[in-house]
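Recall from the previous lesson that a structure prediction takes nothing but the amino acid sequence as input. Here we apply that procedure to ABC transporter domain-containing protein from Paenibacillus yonginensis. The sequence below is the only information supplied.
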Amino acid sequence: MYTSFSLYTTKVFASAQSITSLNTILKPVCLSAERIYQLLNMEDENSGKVAELDSRIKTIEFLHVGYRYRTDLPLVFNDLTFSFMRGDKVLLLGDNGTGKTTLIKLLLGLYQPAYGTLSFNGIHASSIQSDSLRQRMGVVSQSTFLFRGTVLDNILYGQNGKSRSAVEDLIDELGLKEYIGRMPKGLDTEINQNTSGVSGGQAQIIAFIRAMLAEKDVLILDEPTANVDEETRRTIIHVLREQRYKGILIVISHQMDGMDFFNKTIHLTKTL
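The prediction returns the following tokens.
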């Protein structure tokens, strides 16, 4: 009888423990479900936006622009006023936390100013459909992602109507023929997933060539000379210095060494 009582007691406690652990299992599930509902209920980012950019971006203007992530948080930056024109080479300087990335997200339509106006070709960004804006912009991020395939495959990814000859012509124009030629098989060098097969500097150059081939109205380079070898750094600076970009070139950096060829410099500082 005592043995039976012990067995039943063990089963009861085991069931109680299972109920207790069920809460631990269900809590993240409920949180995930809540976030899914929040996502489904999000307002379309194009809601109320009726304008489309039907011509090249020729001017970008910030007029007394300020931004904060929430109303109860301090301003990331305050009263920014400047303009860019087609043909400008712009250096965006600032230490970490000064709002360089936030400013780029404003340009891409991912954020809207807390106050002030941002406009493209005289049209307020708040009225421009996001796809219409972003398809005219190219971004090379600091963390470059390459796909499995050859160097050429990665450069041509998403490039409609572009061919190997167009890539070779661009590489020659940029003065990168020798640099690419030093890769094991040049444009036919194989890349494994996540840049394996090329160095970090080579991956940055490949991403830069891909962005240049797309001929976007605005090209944004996020810290292009950070975390690369010295040869690649000199190569990138040389190309940026010598190449005449037809659109608006914006380079984000926290250092000025070798960056004396930009015709406009925006220096962001932390707000008090």
